[in-house]
Design a protein that fits this description.
Elements: E1 14-15, E2 20-21, E3 25-27, E4 32-35, H1 43-51, E5 56-59, H2 63-69, E6 79-82, H3 101-115, H4 117-128, E7 135-138, H5 145-156, H6 161-169, H7 175-185, H8 201-215, H9 218-225, H10 230-240, E8 241-243
Parallel strand pairs: 4-7, 5-6, 5-7
Antiparallel strand pairs: 1-4, 2-3, 3-8
Helix pairs in contact: 3-8, 4-10, 5-6, 6-8, 8-9
């Protein structure tokens, strides 16, 4: 199924609903979204965004990215949280072809998971708040920082690793448009890295395996480093889960194909 919600300027805005969780539950539709930069919202896109009833925006970008590209416009009842979870900037487009996509990005995600513990924990608290939904979190392309937070949330909700990985790979359906945006900002140039804008499954599988190897499991990472306790997990599940079939169909993620 197509989880992408169509916008003119946003390329990677997706509903995270429908994934099966443990205990006969599923993620509620229309309650949690992930996206590329909401600083691109204009005109008809803005009207479509407002129609989703979003109450909370979590912006995961650096200060300098917001200064350069803007942020979501203000609107009545819309709460904005700036939580820059990445602390070591790098330029993906400038990497050479020798940087292997899966291993390189998995290592960067591990850095974020350990550098950004305060901001990641705050993001989880915001998402778990009773009055937060519908909520959306985003970075620049909606792939890396957004993909990391999506994986943690889905894991704490009890979604399977296969579905977490499949959700990550759906960015592949937006890769061409993300590349077009980069080219528009860099006239006459091409990214030096073949992995730019890509979201192959092995990136997320390696990242999750690394967390498990270091901490025992994703849940143990969250408990040890983020201070996530049973109360926070219960709040996330209360806010975002319903019984299977109660809120539309439960589905497994479909891995995006790029061939």
């Amino acid at each position: 199924m197509n989880r992408h919600i169509a916008f003119e300027r946003l390329h990677n805005f997706r509903d995270m609903g429908g994934y099966r969780a443990d205990g006969g539950r599923q993620v509620r539709w229309g309650r949690l979204f992930r996206s590329d930069s909401l600083g691109k919202l204009r005109d008809e896109d803005w009207d479509r965004f407002l129609g989703l009833g979003v109450r909370t925006v979590i912006d995961l970008r650096y200060d300098w990215e917001i200064a350069a590209k803007g942020r979501v416009p203000d609107a009545p009842g819309l709460r904005y949280h700036h939580l820059s979870i990445e602390h070591r900037p790098y330029d993906q487009a400038a990497l050479g072809p020798e940087a292997e996509t899966g291993r390189f990005l998995a290592d960067r995600y591990a850095e974020v998971a350990h550098d950004g513990v305060a901001e990641i924990r705050r993001a989880l608290d915001v998402i778990a708040a009773e009055d937060s939904a519908p909520a959306v979190f985003h970075c620049a392309s909606g792939k890396d920082r957004t993909g990391l937070l999506a994986a943690l949330v889905l894991s704490l909700l009890g979604v399977s690793e296969d579905d977490i990985v499949a959700d990550f790979t759906l960015t592949e359906l937006a890769t061409d448009r993300l590349l077009a945006d980069w080219r528009a900002d860099h006239a006459g140039q091409e990214p030096g890295w073949p992995g730019y804008g890509r979201a192959p499954a092995d990136v997320m599988r390696r990242f999750l395996a690394d967390l498990a190897a270091t901490h025992g499991s994703v849940h143990e990472y969250a408990a040890e480093l983020l201070g996530v306790d049973e109360e926070l997990v219960a709040a996330l599940r209360r806010n975002l889960l319903v019984s299977v079939g109660e809120d539309g169909p439960a589905v497994s993620g479909t891995t995006a194909r790029s061939d």
